[in-house]
Design goal:
Layout: H1 5-26, H2 32-39, E1 56-59, E2 63-67, H3 68-78, E3 90-93, H4 104-114, H5 116-129, E4 132-134, H6 141-148, E5 155-158, E6 172-175, H7 178-185, E7 190-193, E8 196-203, H8 212-223, E9 231-236, H9 238-241, H10 245-253, E10 262-265, H11 269-277, H12 281-289, H13 298-302, E11 310-315, E12 322-324, E13 332-334, H14 335-345, H15 357-363
Parallel strand pairs: 2-3, 2-5, 3-4, 5-6, 8-9, 8-11, 9-10
Antiparallel strand pairs: 1-7, 12-13
Length: 364
């Protein structure tokens, strides 16, 4: 199922006016997260601004994505909604029921045989209700979404915790339960407590062995596995613009490990390049036309402490490769401190096994 360019064009046509109306309501500059959230209200603007961490708000997401394990009950419920088609573009991705054991070819064959009834059901329901269907072996849900459906300034919910991967392309993308997906596919509002905002200002540029995953490993060490709960983590600053789109996706994807509602980066040249490289030059052209609305206001970048509930600053010039653990992803050790940590904690002197949290998410 190809991306819906007309839906994106319509969203972008309304976006500037909605942002300006929200800015007038708030009476101040806006973060990117606020722009997207207020631009996706299900109803008209309220009389006063929503209170972060307290107000419950009805939203109208642009898309829904479902993985095969959770899509079953969601689609069974949707079939009772009395609709002929889904209200918003939606997709099903058959990836979670494939168990890694003997190799890609063998594992896929086993999954197709074992889950034939499930796959047949998902395929037939998807065909009936206008839902995009990605068969077993077609790819992992959050990577397929990044390469095909995510777009800057959009809002999506998905029945997978790593739906947040799409934040790497400037989208508010949130993992939800199946019942939430049903509401949106049926044309109803989706309720969310207005999230708090954690701003991560990135300066400098990565070099040497440092990579994008070290940014989120550093953040995990600061916030812990619960520190992002009820909040959107928004990355900004010159260092953010220096990271590739897929690197941004890696950072947002692992934001699930700190409990964040989602994570996001502002639209930049790296995202435009990624859109064009994945055959979405028309989306890049549309985004370029409203780029000022797809980033936080400059005043926010200059004085972030006024607009975020918490601000973290990371200098990528000095960021080291990190080893996180053992036992928990928020126990962060810069490589230069790891040997001392091993000595202080009486851990084995030789690191024989390393577990890649990003790989773990793809296995899931």
């Amino acid at each position: 199922m190809a991306f819906d360019i007309e839906m994106i064009r319509e969203t972008y046509a309304k976006f500037p006016a909605r942002v300006e109306a929200a800015r007038k309501l708030l009476g101040r500059p806006m973060t990117l997260t606020e722009k997207i959230l207020y631009a996706h209200l299900f109803d008209a603007l309220p009389a006063s601004a929503y209170e972060r961490g307290k107000s419950y708000v009805d939203f109208a997401p642009d898309r829904v994505a479902m993985q095969d394990a959770t899509a079953q009950m969601a689609l069974l419920q949707f079939m009772q909604a009395g609709r002929k088609k889904v209200a918003v573009p939606s997709t099903v991705h058959c990836d979670h029921l494939i168990q890694a054991k003997d190799g890609a070819v063998q594992d896929l064959a086993v999954a197709v045989d074992t889950n034939k009834e499930v796959y047949d059901f998902l395929a037939s329901v998807s065909d009936k209700y206008g839902i995009g269907f990605w068969k077993p072996g077609a790819g992992i849900i959050h990577q397929v979404v990044l390469e095909n459906y995510a777009f800057p300034g959009g809002m999506m919910i998905g029945t997978d915790s790593h739906t947040v991967n799409a934040g790497g392309l400037g989208m508010i993308a949130i993992g939800v339960g199946g019942a939430d997906a049903v509401d949106v596919m049926a044309g109803m509002a989706w309720e969310l407590k207005m999230p708090k905002l954690i701003g991560v200002k990135l300066t400098g540029k990565m070099s040497g062995w440092t990579s994008a995953k070290d940014v989120i490993l550093k953040v995990a060490g600061i916030l812990t596995v619960k520190g992002g709960t009820g909040a959107v983590v928004e990355y900004f600053g010159p260092g953010a613009d220096s990271i590739s789109c897929t690197g941004k996706g890696t950072i947002c994807n692992m934001g699930a490990e700190i409990g964040a509602t989602t994570s996001i980066f502002g639209y930049d040249d790296k995202m435009g390049d990624y859109l064009r490289s994945t055959d979405r030059a028309d989306v890049a052209a549309l985004a370029d036309g409203i780029i000022a609305h797809l980033r936080s206001d400059e005043e926010v970048n200059q004085h972030p402490e006024k607009y975020y509930d918490q601000v973290i600053e990371i200098n990528l010039d000095t960021l080291e490769p990190h080893i996180n653990g053992p036992f928990t992803p928020d126990l962060a050790w810069p490589l230069s401190q790891f040997a001392q940590a091993v000595k202080d904690n009486n851990w084995p002197a030789v690191l024989e096994v390393g577990f890649d949290w990003f790989l773990y998410q793809f296995i899931l």
